[in-house]
Amino acid sequence: MSKLVTIFGGSGFVGRYIARRMAKEGWRVRVAVRRPNEAGFVRPYGVVGQVEPVLANIRDEASVRAAIKGADAVVNCVGILVETGKNKFSAVQAEGAARIARIAKEERVARFVHISAIGADTASDSFYAKSKAEGEAGVKAAFPKAVILRPSIVFGPEDQFFNRFASMARLSPFVPLMGASSKFQPVYVDDVAQAAVKSILDPSFAGVYELGGPEQLSFRALIEKMLQVIGRRRVILSIPRMAALPMAFGFDMLQAVTFGLFTNGILTRDQLRQLKRDNMVSPKAKGLAEFGITPTALDTVLPEYLWPYRDGGQYAAIRDSASKLR
């Protein structure tokens, strides 16, 4: 019988790419998610019955154990950018990660891969970054030879970074930016997936790997590149931190007083704390090179999925070409 991998958050942005690649490797794939009825799109990644969504909530011990039972490898891709309801940074990214790793160890899982983030630091004033570091510590306690992948901003067709700002640029003449000078090293989602798969297949990989693409660009430069791809001229408004802080506080308070009916997906105080630091691979860190992966450049991928935001959408290139014939 083929081997089995359980991927927590396997229907998410990064998880789905790992699931697809593991299915191509011939493994059975168990996609552990809170709403399996909404994850049916993963089934065609393999032959009938090879890829199956299952119910699991990483805050619940029994469902985690059931999802892991019989697995040869486990990948944890679960993470949140904004706290909502019971899904707090500490509950999901610290306690949840530690719980998955502990139960995987108890169930005699051979390989464990954990998706963290660049900037994970127990001393950080960002609750997001601190919880990521605490989650890593929990994973290492159970699996000393676990592979921990720390990507910078991940880009790809389903990302919530370039798609979000491209959508904004389509509707507004302005693109507001907080922390415009902060630097990032965007990494392609399938490069992250390749690293995760190689980590499962080759037991020689162990420890922390920081994953970044070939370009190190400021926040402003990334938005300028996105605007160039979608062919729109927009004014980039750099908002000082002192002006952004009351805005973030207001959005956070609005979420609190509405008891979560409004989710602050605009700007949080914790995101402002994160933007104080660059998000790039450390000079001495192990990375994609150790996996034999050549990082994918932004220019080779962005045009493939940002075309809906152009004036004219999929017909923009044809229209521009035809205009030169006049």
Commentary on this structure:
- The chain is α/β, with parallel strands linked by helices and 326 residues long.
- It has a domain at 4-155 and 185-215 and 278-294: Rossmann fold.
- The protein has 11 helices and 13 strands.
- β1 (4-8), α1 and β2 (28-33) form a beta-alpha-beta unit.
- The longest helix has 18 residues, at 89-106.
- The protein is globular and about 60 Å long.
- It starts with a strand and ends with a helix.
- 44% of the residues are buried.
The end-to-end span amounts to: 64 Å
Largest sheet: 7 strands, parallel
Strand order of the largest sheet: 3-2-1-4-5-6-11
Strand content: 15-25%
List low-confidence stretches.
Answer: none
Number of strands: 13
Tell me, rounded to a whole number, the average pLDDT: 95
